[in-house]
Amino acid sequence: MNANANAQTLIEVRDLRIGFRLGRTGQTQAVKGVSFDVPAQGTLALVGESGSGKSVTALALMGLLPKENTLLGAGSRIFYAGRNLFELPRSELRRLRGRDIGMIFQEPMSSLNPVFSVGFQLGEVLRRHLGMTRRQAQTRAVELLGEVGIAAPGKRVDDYPFRLSGGEQQRVMIAMAIACEPRLLIADEPTTALDVTIQKQILDLIANLQKKRRMSVLFITHDLSVVGEIADQVVVMRDGEVREQGSVAQIFGAPRDAYTRALLLCRPRLDRRPERLPVIDDFLGSADGNRPDPVERRRGLRGDEPAILDVRKLSKSFYSREGLFGRREFKAVKEVSFTLAKGKTLGLVGESGSGKSTLGLMLARLHEASAGEVLFAGEDLLKLPPEAALSCKRRVQIIFQNPYASLNPRFTIGQILTEPMRIHRIGANEAERRERARDLLAKVGLPVASFFRHPHEFSGGQRQRIAIARCLTLQPEILICDESVSALDVSVQAQVLNLLQALQDEYGMSYLFISHDLAVVKYMADEVMVMSEGEAVEIAPSDEIYLHPRHPYTRKLLAAIPQGWRGGRATA
């Protein structure tokens, strides 16, 4: 039976097998016999970790897989309107893309052309697929930007992508995807690494557009809590195979597969704080696929802990040219004060642009502060000359958000780990430094053979472990974690959080944990500081701030946290 025979099904995927050539003789299987249906006017979520085959499946639906190295299984079929998409001529498939099937890609800044205005890019879709004139396309582009919630669309239509925030860029991508009123919208990780408030806005927007335009949605994500907010049906994938599929009520209420249960429980919860987060192997390695509930971890401050860092009225301004001789001041951080207790974790939350990362970079002396004091070991870090500040930099280290950009691609892992020790004269000789580097690799859960490999040979989670090991080479007392787990799969995120917690227990380090993910912050932090537009609007113990938030902005952030399925979207 094909899709045309079932009025309730828009897309029918059958026995999809996709491989890729590696070199002259090698090959790898990315998708291994996947089958599922996309319901008409409904939402199907495709869930799994990186490498599970989710995005490859979506690219196959769009006909965007590279011809030169793609190996398509002989029995692979994708039916749309009664026709197998793999048998369509390229010209017909090109007409289908954009008009009948639209796609929102994961990284909007990489998908939008930086040298064209958003109005021109929207208009190009309308001119190519609907035959509109340039003026008609411009008028319709303004209407589309307004429909997806861009403020003042008549003015923003002429903006270039770099002038838009991450959430606005994603809204432009949604406008492009729905411009021709497609019957199917594919959303590939559209909310990954977005603030919780922006994430909620995007999820609500997609859900509202789906109902208004009566289109189907294929929603791809690694986060099951997001799935519960938007999906009717769920397909769980791992290693190119379907592990489980069913209604959202069945997947959340009674998951049958151990891997599904693992994905549901790996993510930190607001109502529990286990001593250690469960990971995938905890479930797949047990006989019945279940893991007993662990003991709870206690968080909070007694009040008599010594302060390792005392920040007083810290400020940072940036300046841009205005007119011929003038300049405009932008206050990124405005007189922020707080103390960091020794051996404890201060969580720092807020939306993009709130000043979180700027604050962390000032503490690491990677940005120069405009005003204020940062007292560390009795000295003001901001007043130390560069030579004296070097020893303090050793004691205050930072883990950056993007492990792909923060590791030198030309260095081996051994060179990445031994270079900081050489600069700070740690270790009597090179042999001792290499031995310490190997010990640290074992400490963060990587094999000793990693010493001779390069960063591109590792996954995102492994690279973040390498970044943590690099910080540990200097035996820091304060570790600044700047969105260090925000873009990781939930299972890899759990591994990294467990590692950070184990290291804090062993070495007594203090953490400044910066994140937009409030569930993660609640799990890690003893105290939470909320920032908005450069100001600290609320500071309180982590349990207190989640149970009794005082500031309206804090309540707004908490209300935006995805709650998973709550019984409202189940289908029979």
Verbal overview:
This protein is α/β, with parallel strands linked by helices and 572 residues long. Among the domains are: 126 residues, Rossmann fold; 41 residues, no CATH class; 200 residues, P-loop containing nucleotide triphosphate hydrolases (Rossmann fold, 3-Layer(aba) Sandwich). Helix content is 37%, strand content 25%. It has a six-stranded mixed β-sheet, with helices on both faces. Strand 12 and strand 13 form a beta hairpin. The N terminus and C terminus are likely disordered.
Shape estimate: globular
CATH C-level category of the domain at 343-366 and 384-559: Alpha Beta
CATH architectural grouping of the domain at 343-366 and 384-559:
3-Layer(aba) Sandwich
The chain-level mean pLDDT equals 88
Which secondary-structure class do the elements indicate?
alpha/beta
Task: Note the total helix count.
Answer: 22
> Order of strands side by side in the largest beta sheet?
7-8-9-3-10-11
Distance between the termini: 21 Å
Low-confidence stretches: 1-5, 568-572
The fraction of residues assigned to DSSP E strands is 15-25%
Number of strands: 21
